[in-house]
Specification:
By secondary structure, this protein is of the alpha/beta class. It contains 13 helices and 22 strands.
Length: 502
């Protein structure tokens, strides 16, 4: 089929054609996109969700004390602010209930086709549509495809010997087994990142013995996160402007963390000193302090906010093993120094396959080109959203859009509005597809990668990198910069695929 591409596809006089949109993923990103599109008159939307209901990470991560360490006044949609959060950083049930409530109120909850796993998405040249296949053998077609599966959806397990040999019970922190009673058990927790830090103090109270395996220490900042006292709650609820002030303040506070990460030798030193003082104060025992102490630049990995984790390590029934895990045997876990740590239950708090993005879904763009092939040198996309040769495909929370200091919801909203602009332009120009220009994407990728130079992110290994060591998860700058760069889509950066000439 002979399609021509053009910078200036003429705008017609009759009403523009309706667009059919498929969104994959019903977490914060997918819901944000659906709301934005519906608000702007794009209403033929289907949201395909693998899980039994909407919620994304907040449905699946239900481990004890699961919470968001970003304050809720910022970790919430700007257009759906709540004044009655129970505490600074809400727990998982409150966040999930918020997302469900917003989705229902905005009329997008019913667009979710749950328990539907997408296996492949293929661009059909002839029709200029995406063909989206599910594991149930159903095919959806769409003029535009929005992939909102996020970076943190597929649990990662360590590649170590003996995983299948363990005679006890085991599960991943992101798939918590609530039917398993930890009381009186010998529990091994492998991993000490943001998830473990939240549930370890809870598990420590239940388990007979808890062994925490930490491969790398973390930098901590204090966070008590108690329920708001009544006067504060009332002030937020009743005094005009208090909530908006809190949101604005938290935005700036998060940006300050990014300043520290971007400038490890100046602002980074200040926060490093704050963190070190807090950790020294919490870790009274010099041996434990030595074991828990991180050996990399402040901010290179995610800084953890907890006033409960380090004290939990000092309980008599808890042991911190500062060793990598060598292998699993039927009786328990063997650490790198050869010691066997017997366990009845292993909890894998080993994070997610973040650099895999939406894989193992197969995504074939123009000419049948596989996205894996396009990303063979590492994932990259213009503003984290558009990939040349994958027309009318948009990724939310895609490459280089994770934040170490801010709220991902801020990014989701910016992305949803950007995608909406792309679709409005496409529709307004009566184009059949919109495709980012290869040179634009390549230049923006170079710019993103160059901006990491000199930052703390480059100074250790972390889940922000892919196997080749390229930082593919994080945005290298501030939330405000991302907002500025995505606020207005520049049509010159895209090719609009024209209707075929009669
Ligand atoms: P994570 O931060 O990636 O932590 C994984 C942990 O497992 C690390 O301690 C890691 O050690 C360890 N690990 C990985 N492979 C291992 C191996 N083969 N042997 C021994 N240890 C191994 O995962 P997470 O804690 O689930 O958090 C992931 C992300 O989710 C966070 O960074 C954050 O973005 C998000 N999250 C956010 C919140 C929130 O409150 N906003 C809460 C939870 C999670 P190394 O450090 O040595 O790699």
């Amino acid at each position: 089929m002979s399609l021509s591409t053009s910078d200036a596809v003429p705008t017609g006089t009759s009403s523009p054609p309706a667009l059919r949109v498929v969104i994959v993923g019903a977490g914060f990103g997918g819901i944000a996109a659906a709301i934005e599109l519906r608000r702007h008159g794009i209403s033929d939307i289907t949201i395909l969700e693998k899980a039994p209901e909407l919620g994304g990470t907040w449905l699946l991560n239900s481990y004890p004390a699961a919470a968001c360490d970003v304050p809720s006044h910022l970790y919430s949609f700007s257009f759906a602010q709540r004044r009655d959060w129970s505490r600074l950083c809400s727990h998982q049930p409150e966040i999930l209930s918020y997302l469900r409530g917003v989705a229902s109120a905005q009329g997008v909850a019913d667009l979710v086709h749950a328990s539907t796993t997408v296996t492949s998405c293929s661009w059909e040249e002839a029709s200029c549509r995406w063909s989206v296949e599910t594991d149930a053998g159903r095919t959806y077609t769409a003029d535009a495809l929005i992939l909102a599966t996020g970076q943190l959806n597929t649990p990662a397990y360590p590649r170590i010997e003996g995983l299948e040999d363990f005679a006890g019970h085991s599960f991943h922190s992101a798939r918590w087994d609530h039917d398993y009673d930890l009381r009186g058990k010998r529990v091994a927790v492998v991993g000490s990142g943001a998830s473990a830090v939240q549930f370890v103090p809870e598990v420590a109270e239940q388990a007979a013995r808890l062994t925490v395996f930490q491969r790398t220490g973390n930098w901590f900042l204090p966070r008590r996160n108690r329920p708001y006292p009544a006067p504060i709650k009332q002030a937020i609820k009743r005094i005009p402007g208090v909530q908006a002030f809190r949101r604005g303040f938290m935005f700036q506070y998060c940006e300050a963390i990014t300043v520290a990460i971007r400038h490890p030798k100046t602002m980074g030193r200040l926060l490093h000193a704050r963190s070190a003082a807090f950790m020294r104060w919490q870790l009274k025992d010099p041996d434990l302090r030595k074991k828990a102490w991180p050996d990399y630049t402040f901010g290179c990995k995610r800084v953890l906010f907890s006033s409960a984790f380090l004290p939990a390590l000092q309980r008599p029934n808890v042991e911190l093993v500062a060793e990598a895990v060598a292998r699993v045997v039927p009786e328990g876990v063997v650490s790198a120094d050869g010691t066997l740590h017997e366990a009845d239950c292993i909890i894998w708090a080993t994070g997610f396959q973040a650099s895999e993005f939406m894989f193992p879904m197969r995504i074939a763009g123009a000419g049948g080109r596989d996205l894996r092939e396009a990303w063979s040198d590492g994932a990259h996309a213009h503003l984290g959203m558009t990939v040349p040769g994958f027309p009318s495909m948009f990724i939310l929370y895609g490459p280089n859009t994770n934040t170490s200091g801010g709220s991902i919801i801020v990014y989701h909203e910016a992305q949803a509005a950007y995608v909406r602009q792309a679709l409005q332009l496409m529709r307004g120009r009566r184009a059949r597809a919109v495709d980012v220009r290869a040179e634009v994407e390549a230049a923006s990728d170079r710019e993103v990668q160059a901006r990491f130079a000199g930052t703390a992110w480059t100074q250790c290994d972390s889940w922000y990198r892919d196997e080749q060591g390229r930082i593919v998860a994080n945005w290298p700058g501030y939330m405000r910069e991302y907002l500025e760069q995505t606020r207005e889509l520049d049509p010159a950066e895209y090719r609009f695929v024209a209707e075929p000439q009669p």
